[in-house]
């Protein structure tokens, strides 16, 4: 299996002093890759700038104009969480371009997968609003590229970031061609992602699967969620491509997330998704980086994911697990299985 990583120095130029979503995040991943010995086994590709048409396929012209204009004036705050610098427009459009490039690798004639190591992240960006550290919704741009350029009719997005991917949900809420699955802490930022949000009435009903989880769910709980909800939903949808919003802020060491996953726990989730991609869509899978704010955990989780993508074991978990037991998500699993359309009807 050939694995491609897509990244760019422009991503590090987008940084704001003291902000947790900073250039150090990608530096930590690249350093972890170098120490791991994987660098010679990974193919590196330079992303291209995302075309304007690809951005407009998921965002309003007003949003793009606002980001570009603010960047051209040297930057500023969009909201309390989200910043723009003089370099942010270039970083954002190349991050979206990296996500497109990851899809091109996954759908190319040569069997391979890809990890777009990008900043800024994207899954909170709605059609008309930048928020939650995110400017352009990278994974949404990638999914629409797969649909518009390759003619795919069924694309699945699994988001295991600790925060709900509200922007991705909003973009595809009425699109039956995209199954969006999100596991996220609740109640937590951005306050969306309720079980009852299942997709717009009509053909898209059932193509949004939200799995809000109580604080403290750890390895065993997440594994059960993936076995009882995520895997069956993907098997019912039968995607032609699997995209992963790879946010590692559910790690127990993360300063922002209230969950209890370990590096080994994340490895299990990623291995499960890679196995499902092999089973359902000929291994066509791409990961796009989202959150993760413990530099140590972020580097470890990214390396374990890349090892699995290369067809290897994930390696040892040098950080260990959280010493306390994890919260049981059994009640949430039971309720979703009883009520969500994807478990009641075949799509």
Summarize the biggest pleated sheet: 8 strands, parallel
How many distinct folded domains? Answer: 1
- How do the strands of the widest beta sheet line up side by side? 2-1-5-10-9-6-7-8
**What is the CATH superfamily classification?**
Histone deacetylase domain
Q: According to CATH, what is the class?
A: Alpha Beta
Report the principal-axis shape: globular
Derived from helix and strand composition plus strand pairing, the structural class reads alpha/beta
Average predicted local confidence, pLDDT: 96
Question: What is the element layout, followed by pairings?
Answer:
Layout: E1 2-6, H1 10-13, H2 24-36, E2 43-45, H3 52-56, H4 61-72, E3 75-77, E4 83-85, H5 88-107, E5 112-116, H6 138-150, E6 155-159, H7 166-172, E7 178-185, E8 208-213, H8 219-237, E9 241-246, H9 263-281, E10 285-289, H10 295-309, H11 330-339, H12 341-344
Parallel strand pairs: 1-2, 1-5, 5-10, 6-7, 6-9, 7-8, 9-10
Antiparallel strand pairs: 3-4
Helix pairs in contact: 2-10, 5-6, 8-9, 8-11, 9-10
Summarize, please.
41% of the residues lie in helices and 14% in strands. The protein is α/β, with parallel strands linked by helices and 347 residues long.
Structural write-up:
- By secondary structure, the protein is an alpha/beta fold.
- The protein has one domain (2-317, 325-344): Histone deacetylase domain (Arginase, Chain A).
- It is 41% helix and 14% strand.
- The protein has twelve helices and ten strands.
- The chain has helices at 10-13, 24-36, 52-56, 61-72, 88-107, 138-150, 166-172, 219-237, 263-281, 295-309, 330-339, 341-344; strands spanning 2-6, 43-45, 75-77, 83-85, 112-116, 155-159, 178-185, 208-213, 241-246, 285-289.
- An eight-stranded parallel beta sheet has the order 2-1-5-10-9-6-7-8, with helices on both faces. It has a two-stranded antiparallel sheet with strand order 3-4.
- Strand 9, helix 9 and strand 10 form a beta-alpha-beta unit.
- Helix 8 runs parallel beside helix 11 (330-339).
- The protein is globular.
- It starts with a strand and ends with a helix.
- The model has no long low-confidence stretch (mean pLDDT 96).
């Amino acid at each position: 299996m050939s694995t491609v990583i897509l990244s760019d120095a422009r991503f590090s130029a987008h940084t704001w002093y003291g902000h947790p979503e900073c250039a150090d995040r990608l530096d930590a991943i690249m350093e972890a890759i170098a120490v791991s010995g994987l660098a010679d086994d990974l193919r590196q590709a330079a992303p291209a700038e995302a075309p304007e048409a690809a951005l407009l396929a998921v965002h309003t012209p007003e949003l793009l104009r606002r980001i570009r204009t603010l960047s051209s004036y040297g930057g500023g705050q969009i909201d309390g969480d989200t910043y723009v610098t003089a370099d942010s427009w270039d970083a954002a459009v190349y991050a979206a371009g990296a996500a497109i490039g990851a899809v091109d690798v996954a759908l190319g004639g040569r069997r391979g997968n890809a990890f777009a190591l990008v900043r800024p992240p994207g899954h909170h960006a709605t059609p008309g609003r930048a928020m939650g550290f995110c400017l352009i919704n990278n994974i949404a741009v990638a999914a629409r590229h797969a649909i518009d350029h390759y003619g795919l009719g069924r694309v699945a997005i699994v988001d295991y970031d600790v925060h709900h991917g509200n922007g991705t949900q909003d973009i595809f809420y009425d699109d039956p061609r995209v199954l969006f699955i999100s596991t996220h802490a609740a109640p937590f930022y951005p306050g969306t992602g309720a079980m009852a949000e299942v997709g717009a009435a009509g053909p898209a009903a059932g193509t949004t699967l939200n799995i809000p989880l109580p604080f403290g769910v750890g390895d065993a709980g997440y594994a059960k969620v993936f076995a009882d909800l995520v895997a069956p939903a993907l098997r019912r949808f039968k995607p032609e491509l699997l995209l992963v919003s790879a946010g590692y802020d559910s790690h127990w060491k993360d300063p922002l997330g209230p969950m209890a996953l370990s590096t080994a726990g994340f490895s299990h989730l990623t291995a499960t998704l890679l196995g499902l991609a092999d089973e359902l869509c000929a291994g066509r899978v791409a990961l796009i980086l989202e959150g993760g704010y413990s530099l140590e955990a972020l580097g470890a989780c990214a390396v374990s994911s890349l090892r699995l993508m290369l067809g290897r074991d994930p390696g040892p978990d040098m950080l260990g697990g959280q010493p306390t037991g994890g919260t049981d998500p059994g009640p949430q699993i039971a309720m979703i299985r009883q009520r969500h359309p994807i478990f009641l009807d075949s799509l």
